Amino acid sequence: MQLVQFIKQRISINRNELSGAFGDIGTDLPLIVGMILASGLNSANVLIAYGAMHIITAFLYGIPMPVQPLKAVAMIVIAQKISPEIIYGGGLAIGLVMLVLTVTGAVNLIAKYIPRVVVRGIQFGLGIQLSMIALREYVMSDSWNGILIALVAFIITIVLMGNRKYPPAIFVIMLGILYALVTHFDVLGDIRPVLPAMPELYKPTWTDILTGFIILALPQIPLSIGNSIIATHRIAGDLFPEKKVTLKKISLTYSLINIINPMLGGIPTCHGSGGMAGHYAFGARTGGSVFIYGTLFLMLGLFFSGSFQLVLNIFPLPVLGIILLFEGLWLMMFIKDIIDSKKSFFIALLTALIAAFLPYGYLIGMIVGTTLYYISDKHIKSYLKIP
Fold first, then answer.
1. Which of 17, 67, 148, 245 could disulfide-link 236, Cβ–Cβ 3.0 to 4.6 Å?
2. For residue 168, which phi and psi values (nearest 5 degrees)?
3. Looking at the domain assignment, is residue 164 inside a domain?
4. Is the separation of the CB atoms in 352 and 124 below 8 Å?
5. What is the residue range of 306's domain?
């Protein structure tokens, strides 16, 4: 009975959780597919591990704490076609480094001296990036038909945003499915289930770990500390203050999923403030959305991994773009609690622009923003002409 009560407190399955489950799909799918295609990863392994990490996280937190592909890692893998062995080694290296930072308390020490305005800047910068990708690469990917379907999805989302009875993402996804059926009906017969697939266990070598650390971990860890750990902790406190989610817990689960994933042939993953914002914006309030989302990937990996790429090819990218756009916009809105201070707004905006547009922008933005914050108010006010 205690177990049943524990599950009920953390996992709700209803229309709002179902809607919220798709709040992060626009970010995840392109990165997952891109990594599978670029590196020849086993799609069954990737999907099963990805789904399993979501389900575990749903029970551990009881709030929409999603699991996402590591963005810097994904970009490097896609651009350079990194081999699976180095991806596994890099994921394990990231997990081990973050575990050391967690158990030694270094993450808490770093977070202590990163001011809220810098975190808001990092969130705003990520929101800018997500919104630009949504508009430039998704909405504009299918000529005028794509723009039209994106416009319909946008109107549906605007009208139903915040509606607990008719949450928007369900209707937006249904619109995408209907569009896919109409435009690609001839290829639906090629989608077939396969015999259940199980992930193949893998043991990274020390060479893989060292190479992965240099190529993948070093560019990723600053972004992880800023967005996956500190910013996610901040947004969890903003949206679910009663849950009292600690920074150490977020950092610890981040570490552990990256230690487990490589053993299952999965991709490196993280928690993320953007993902939580997306789930919440589309209706999620418990771990139910993450559980539903994880179960979807688990079922795809177990039974439909051979048709996964085909399904993605026929689903309209502009619809995913609208979901991604609202995830980015929702994330940017968190800057509102520091906008009444010129100094804070200046630092947050500068941090955001650096994070969004410079190479290694999250690391540079975090350093520049924090440095400016601790410079004497006299210098800042003089520059901004604040009386």
1. 245
2. -70, -35
3. yes
4. yes
5. 8-186+194-336
* Residue 387 identity (one-letter amino acid): P
Give the chain's domain count: 1
Q: How far apart are CA 149 and CA 145, in angstroms?
A: 6
Q: pLDDT digit string (tens) for 175-210? A: 888 887 777 666 655 565 555 666 678 888 899 999
Angle at CA of residue 130, ends 267 and 370, nearest 5°:
90
Q: Quick check: is 68 in a domain? A: yes
The candidate with the shortest Cα–Cα distance to 31, out of 129, 124, 119, is 129
- Dmax over Cα atoms in the chain, in whole Å? 71
Three-state secondary structure call for residue 69: strand
pLDDT in tens, 116-161: 888 888 888 888 888 888 888 788 877 788 889 899 999 998 988 8
| pTM listed for this prediction | 0.79
Handedness of CA 198, 68, 147, 330 (dihedral sign): positive
